[in-house]
Amino acid sequence: TMNVRSARRMQISHLHHTCTSVRRPIGYVILRGLSATSQSSTLLMENGTRCEEQILNYDKVEKVFIGGILTMLTLFTICGNLLVVISVCFVKKLRQPSNYLIVSLAVADLSIALAVMPFVSITDLIGGQWVFGQVFCNVFIAMDVMCCTASIMTLCVISIDRYLGITKPLTYPVRQNGCCMAKMVVSVWLLSASITLPPLFGWAQNVNDNKVCLISQDFGYTIYSTSVAFYIPVSVMLIMYYRIYRAAKLSAAKHTITGFPRVGEEDSVDCVSAALRLHREVEECTRFSRLMRSNRRNMSIFKREQKAAATLGIVVGAFSVCWMPFFLLSTARPFICRADCPSCVPLWVERTLLWLGYANSLLNPFIYAFFNRDLRTTYSNLLRCRYRNINRKLSAVGMQQALKRVDKTDSVI
Fold this sequence. Notes:
GO biological process, one term: adenylate cyclase-activating adrenergic receptor signaling pathway
CATH topology of the largest domain: Rhopdopsin 7-helix transmembrane proteins
Helix content: over 70%
Mean pLDDT: 75
Oligomer: single chain
Organism: Oncorhynchus kisutch (Coho salmon)
Low-confidence stretches: 14-50, 257-269, 409-413
CATH architecture of the largest domain: Up-down Bundle
Radius of gyration: 33 Å
Shape: globular
Strand content: under 5%
Strand order of the largest sheet: 1-2
Transmembrane segments: 64-88, 100-120, 140-160, 181-201, 221-242, 308-332, 352-371
Membrane topology: Multi-pass membrane protein
GO cellular component, one term: synapse
Distance between the termini: 130 Å
């Protein structure tokens, strides 16, 4: 009996030891799972290193607040760029070759708002994990890269177009040639599409699994894509802005009126002196009238140069503030992250910089409308549902502005 009891005790103790040894890792895994859900999920690599997959966690109030902001940003971007497309396409005065680039920019920004922003918003609100599948991931990345690059490249071409139109108004006929301007627009979109093709044809594969949808982190492709999509365009825009600014500054220095008839000089009152003085004043008045006629033309060129410099300065400034942080991060990420851990950058930092870049698509239509009277007038009529006689109203406003300029010039004379 004693032997049987001792044997049963040994079996029970052995069973208890076995159960505790099994339960411990199960409880450990559960606690690790809860911790991963609340903070970040940790993947254990074969070499023992750890890579964190960032997860964004919001409570209900935060989700409503962030979702409302992202929705408003998307809707305002759609409305603003849609106004530009409708204005240029349906208003005769705005249907000019020089505005084709503005329409191309609006189409690119509108495509970002329709095909990119909604999916990024949903991904951010559910924690940052990609839930739309591996096939659509490649399509999404291609649309994102192509539309953003087309927007940036169009801004670059607009800066070159403004510079040539200001500095070479007689020898730069492209602005009046719709076919040449259309070729420029097509070239911009083809160059933008060329950046999206390498990951689709095997040069650099996108990071694409069940939870992560990230553009390829290949070193060569990263340098190529960021250079073509950002660094080269922003360099060209800065150079064009500097040249337009310098041209406006030189014009301001040249616009000084000389040769105005001097009044109050006392000469001799004899007849010969009076006749000579009258002849000299007639010559000075004739020369002054010629000077003022040429000065009116030069003054209009000078104002146009100043307006182009101010517009391009704000465009370049807004573009740099919105996109430069994101592209600096995109360029540095392949060098600071391991190949087996491409998402080592905190997800909230990446998403904040990405949405800051998307905000540039919202700013573009309002920047150009602020400096373009015809666009402002068209916006106002469309928003107030005054569709009829928009062309006649624009012509009337243009005539009033022209008369005001003439009155100001006459008052100066």
